[in-house]
Amino acid sequence: MKKAALALFLAFTLNGCATSHYTSGRDFPSANVPSIVKGKTTASDLKTLFGEPFAKTPVNETDEKWVYTYANGSAHAQSYIVTMKVTTTGTQKTLDVLMRNETVINYTFTDGPAPGSSTATE
């Protein structure tokens, strides 16, 4: 009986779990992306539609890259006596905008699962 109680105690103490949540960037309204018109949408229009960009990078004397990005998710680790299972889930969206003289000349938008969302067992 003592061995069974000890085995049960060890099973509970060697078994554990942890969950971690994360966010990165600044959330922005994806529904406004179709409102962007190349050659017409201005820097002021973008700020009205999405707010300030997460990052601005000069490309040359007339061009600048604006980046709107947001990611959120969680990681859950379940530890067993001999193995560990790790599950990560999340979403990520990025809007890259190329500005020339304060006007949009090109943009790309991606939205989907965050890279690395998966389940792994070790």
What does this structure look like?
It is a single chain. It is built from two helices and six strands; from the N terminus they run αβαβββββ. It has one domain. Helices cover 16% and strands 52% of the residues. It has helices at 2-13, 43-50; strands at residues 16-25, 55-58, 63-79, 84-100, 103-113, 118-121. Strands 1, 2, 3, 4, 5 and 6 form a six-stranded antiparallel β-sheet that branches. It is α+β, with helices and mostly antiparallel strands and 122 residues long. Residues 1-18 form the signal peptide. Keywords: Signal.
List keywords for this structure.
six-stranded antiparallel sheet; 122 residues
Average pLDDT number: 81
Radius of gyration, whole Å: 23 Å
User: Major sheet, described briefly?
Assistant: 6 strands, antiparallel
- Tally the helices: what do you get? 2
Order of helices and strands: HEHEEEEE
